Amino acid sequence: MLLQQFANGILFTNGKTWKEIRRFSLMTLRNLGMGKSGLESRVQEEAYHLVEELKKTNALPYDPTFILGCASCNMVCSIIFQNRFDYTDQTLIGFLERFNENSKILSSPWIQVYNIFPALIDYLPGSHHKIYENLAYTKNYILEKMKEHQESLDTNNPRDFIDYFLIKKEQENHNQQLEFTCENLVATASDLFGAGTETTSTTLRYALLLLLKHPEVTAKIQEEIDCVIGRHRSPCMQDRSRMPYTNAVLHEVQRYIDLIPVDVPHAVTCDVKFRNYVIPKGTNILISMTSVLHDDKEFPNPEIFDPAHFLDDSGNFKKSDYFIPFSAGKRMCVGESLARMELFLFLTSILQNFTLKPVVDIKDLDTTPITNGFQHIPPPYQLCFIPL
């Protein structure tokens, strides 16, 4: 696999290194407020900036790709670097351009060929070289920030993910452990950066497209917002439990778009017998997320966008064990709670402040992804954000 060329970080490592880095990352993200009110206030602040930027579109046709990317990228920046960027900052723009380009390349036919025939990667020119260049851009920036943090580090007052890692690195060096290296810091921060930005912003972009296609769904969400939140305060995570329909819509968006149709590679740790097949220890396997998210026994008519898939007969939110957009098991997404927080607060903030108006006839809106590979990417579209 192309991405298995990277030996450090959290996504594509195995064994003791993966276990130590993942455990540290989860603990540090919690220390930085993931799943707590401290981080929620930062997401609310970013939602405010997002709404203010959307107001500047003056209700004219607008492609939301860039601005949604800014919002989700800033949340990762606040965790890794303890700062956010203005939406006109060239550094932020540089990140987003490269993330978007990599996302498209990774879902292209070329990369699928390399994944099937990995030996070709050393002999054929191709777009994978551009991926390496884009990843190097992000890693070089993180390396510069790491050096700045080393000069101003206060071990008694860690500010962000980089500080926590540097403190852990200093502690473990005395124990002669090799997991907490500068290379692993850069790679882990880069993994969090890429995974935490593109997936959330793409999900939000797809959500807005689906809401344009289904105005009756949008109207029900806004009715729920009016009843539970009103117009004069910011949405908060406590609201979600009292908004079953909105919660169902967010779940249905993630199920329907099937953002990552095939999970990242896993390897079996021992010989496994599965459906009369023996999978030898160490074999790399790919898991079809689509087969679960679009299971027709759990979700009747899975090809149809229908929030009722997550509602019971009384209109209450209904959980499903088949809802696994963040993967499952020990390697499930470490940033799941942050992503859920962003999706709820960003979307409800937008719908609290704007009416979504399509620029073409609803019947001409196409929700079919333009690429089907590593990631399902929605087709480009524009809409008008009409202030309420």
TrEMBL record:
Gene (name only): LOC115273354
Q: What protein family does this chain belong to?
A: Belongs to the cytochrome P450 family.
| Needed cofactors | heme
Molecular function terms, GO-annotated: heme binding; iron ion binding; oxidoreductase activity, acting on paired donors, with incorporation or reduction of molecular oxygen, reduced flavin or flavoprotein as one donor, and incorporation of one atom of oxygen
Asked if the keyword Iron belongs to this entry, the reply reads yes
Q: Which Pfam families match?
A: p450
Protein's organism: Suricata suricatta (Meerkat)
Q: Which residues bind heme?
A: 333
Annotated protein name in UniProt: unspecific monooxygenase
